[in-house]
Write a structure and sequence with these properties.
Layout (H helix, E strand, L loop, with lengths): L1 H16 L3 H4 L5 E4 L1 H7 L1 H38 L5 H55 L3 E4 L15 H11 L2
Helix pairs in contact: 3-6, 4-5
């Protein structure tokens, strides 16, 4: 019984001498950023998107020109097949196959280049946004800032939405 009383007094002493409540009761400040809304509303993001789109359109035009030339060559080959000798037919057929392989190579190369260009642009924007959000979080004492589409985030009050402020900061940083 005395051991139990001693243990109880020891626990009470620890509880009163070392209160854990002030350590655990720090105010939790949470913010949310909607990246889709930012992409839609940010002038700087739109400018970066236009740059990527222009590069894509230039590549698409080159592919369309190559596709048109290939279709014309195929059509010419079909029209001339009856008039050409067997050797000439074989030469034309090899030339056509070579152009088809070249077109496929160009298509694959452009597709890969566009993926890389898009990923580079996204990485650049995300690094800039990360710095802006981190600076805002440290300066204003946020415990955590989440992206709107974070798994498990079903609801948040619009009072903690930082999207417009982050968009403004991003646009000021990238005029």
């Amino acid at each position: 019984m005395k051991g139990l009383k001693g243990l109880f007094l020891g626990i009470l002493t620890v509880v009163f001498l070392f209160p854990a409540a002030p350590l655990a009761a720090q105010a939790v400040k949470i913010g949310v950023v909607d990246l889709q809304k930012l992409q839609k509303n940010s002038k700087a993001f739109q400018k970066a998107s236009l740059s990527v789109k222009k590069k894509f359109d230039d590549m698409q035009q080159k592919l369309n020109d190559e596709r048109t030339a290939l279709a014309k060559l195929e059509e010419d080959f079909k029209k001339q097949t009856m008039m050409l000798s067997l050797d000439a037919q074989e030469d034309k057929k090899r030339e056509l196959e070579k152009k088809q392989r070249h077109f496929k190579f160009m298509y694959d190369d452009f597709t890969q280049e566009m993926k890389e260009t898009e990923m580079d642009a996204i990485k650049k924007v995300m690094k800039e946004l990360e710095k802006i959000v981190e600076k805002m979080g440290e300066k204003e004492g946020y415990t955590i800032i989440l992206e709107r589409r974070t798994v498990g985030l079903l609801y948040f009050n619009s009072a903690i939405d930082l999207t417009d402020r982050v968009t403004d900061a991003y646009d000021k940083q990238n005029p």
